[in-house]
Each structure stands twice: as C-alpha cells, then as structure tokens.
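[job 4471] stage=fold_predict status=RUNNING
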Amino acid sequence: MATVAIDRLGKTFPNAARPVLDEVSLTVGDGEFLVLVGPSGCGKLFVAGFIGSPAMNLALGRVEPGTDGPVLALGTHRWPVPAAVLDRLAGLNTDAGHDVVVGLRPGALGLASHATGQADITVAAITVEALGDETNVLFLPPFPVPDVIRAGTGPADTELAAMWTARLEPDVSVTAGDDLTLALDLAQAYLFDAVTGMALHPAEADVAAA
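[job 4471] inference complete, writing structure tokens
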C-alpha cells in the first residue's frame, strides 16, 4: 500500500511577514483523497480553517471607513485596522467597505493583563487544556464565525466548530467557567474575501520588489 506523507512543510512568500504554511505535517493513506479546490490552495479560506493545531480562529467581519482611518467591525466591536495590515494587503477596499473573514492564530491572542492592544474581548472559558509548555483556552467569541468546517450535524458539533482557541502561557491561572479578557493582536491578522474565500495577498509593490 502506498502512503504519501508531508513532514513539517513550510512556505513563505517573498517579503511576507509570516509563512503561509508553518511546519505542516500530513499523511494520506492508500485509498484516501486530498483535494484543494481553487487556483491557489494555500490561499483558500477552507484550508486556513483546518491547517494548524490548534487551527486558525476565524470570524466574519467588515473593513469600513472611519474618521481616523479604516476600522475592522466584528459583531458590535469596532477597532482600528493596524497600519501593518493595510500596508501588506492588496485588493482591500477601505473606501466603500469590504466584507472579510478575519483569521487569527491562537498565539495572536493573550491575556489583556499581559499584553497591550486596543482589541480586547471578554469571554468565558469553556475548556482549558494545560499542555505543559502552553495552556489552550477554548471559548465562544462574541462575534459571528463562518461555516467553514463542520465535524458533524449535531448541536455539540456546531458549537465546537464555532469555538476559538487562545494559546496562553503555561503558568496562567484559568479554569473552565472563568471570565477572562483577551487582547487580540490584529497586526497578525489574516484577511480573506468573504465572497470568494480567497486570501487578500500582499500588495503588488511588495511582491515586485522581491
């Protein structure tokens, strides 16, 4: 029987701040199929929804014009879009507004008392996983999430798919049911077009300069 294995695969585009694939491992056994649909599989929202452990946190949002520059609207929250995000993205309509899906890795979230930032949310911890070198906290975010990955059709499956994960320090004192305030580092956000599901890529000038 044939097996195809990928071990710690990485991919970084020229002049990109972060890799689009970071130590991805995957095994496809005999008779199994893996399909990436679209002209650029690694730039698809569907792929972002399951690559990584824990996977990327996703939320439905909109980039809108604001008095002092573009703002990111997530549910009832409104936060300034960091200059770092605006500088590296092409195809982001900040004048008329742009519906997006926002992606944040679990490591881009931290306790507000241990981090600085304007993007703070207060949530209730549902599950706490103490893993030795880190602590993962699962919670339901206070804004809508896209229907990207569904493990099943029952209520428990739907709730699990909607959960976000914060990767915190190993010595953090959090138990299930606790309320905690988390800071979102929006400078690390990935943005996807809400209609096409395609990633909004680095600005053309940055790519051309590589």
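[job 4471] summary: The first helix runs from residue 45 to 48.
[job 4471] exit 0
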